[in-house]
Amino acid sequence: MNVQLRQLEALVAVADAGTFTDAAARLGLSQAAVSRAIAGLEAALGTRLLQRTTRHVSLTASGARVLPAARRVLEEVAHLERTVTPSELRVGYAWAALGKHTRRLQRAWAAAHPDVPLVFVQSGTATAGLGEGLADVAVIRRPLDDARFDTTRIGAEARYAAVATDNALARRRSVRMAELARYTVALDNRTGTTTPGLWPPGAAPASTRESHGVDEWLTLIAAGQAVGVTSEATANQNPRPGVAYRAVRDAPPIEVRLAWWRDDPPSRLAELVALARAAYG
């Protein structure tokens, strides 16, 4: 069997267009070339795929079975081509992209590279989608001790507390770490930026509760079942009814880094890093 991609493309085009003439126009080929491609595919598969009349073309029973498979093959090939030569630059993040700086970076990138969209992709993994192939670059706010990846600092963000709006702390403009330690603190040990080690020795919260991702974390807080500490970017990009964000006066800032595969850095990485640093100022 010698099935060729151009033959599958011809079958899909004829099935969608309804005639060889319209399919040829869609593919930028002659009608004879499309006819030869279909004939070659039928010979390779050993079955008739199309019923031809003077005015219309329809699928045979075999053609109806082959067409969905042809579409899948062509989509997989297109996906393979996009993997090798990406048409966009994907930036992964776990909880928030770059907070209030996201739009500034998007505009600067679009002005510099209008042909390559900058797409932000949320992924609740330790590498923010980088290790899973969902992103080309990832925004990282916690240590990434993995020799497969390289990172660079692009900025820093203040820490914010998240409390229920009916919590007494919500009436304050800012809070302290010791005040938060009086409550159960929600922690995401996989992707969050807060651990009990953020508090001084002997002053860690007496009670913590594990959460999994920003949505679950916010739901716990809105219900008054916990409080949380997070980055300024989370407060900016994840407003939630029932949750108030307040600046934490005595918490160290969060370092924000970009990460990428050490042995396969994406094209235009240097420009992305420069624009991200400029966005943070």
- Overall body shape: elongated
Mean pLDDT: 93
**Termini, distance in Å?**
60 Å
**H-E order:** HHHEEHEHEEEEEHEEHEHEEH
**Would you count the extended β strands for me?**
13
Poorly predicted parts: none
Sequence of strands across the biggest β-sheet: 4-3-5-13-6
Structural class: alpha/beta
Global Rg: 27 Å
Helix content: 25-40%
Query: In this structure, how is the largest beta sheet organized?
Result: 5 strands, mixed
What is the beta-strand fraction? Answer: 15-25%
DSSP summary: helix tally: 9
Q: What is the compact description of this entry?
A:
By secondary structure, the protein is α/β, with parallel strands linked by helices. Helices cover 36% and strands 22% of the residues.
Summarize the helices and strands and which ones pair or pack.
Elements: H1 5-17, H2 20-27, H3 31-45, E1 50-52, E2 57-59, H4 61-84, E3 89-93, H5 102-112, E4 118-122, E5 137-140, E6 149-157, E7 159-164, E8 174-175, H6 177-180, E9 185-187, E10 208-210, H7 214-222, E11 228-231, H8 232-237, E12 243-248, E13 254-261, H9 269-280
Parallel strand pairs: 3-4, 3-5, 8-12, 9-10
Antiparallel strand pairs: 1-2, 5-13, 6-13, 7-11, 7-12
Helix pairs in contact: 1-2, 1-3, 1-4, 2-3, 5-9
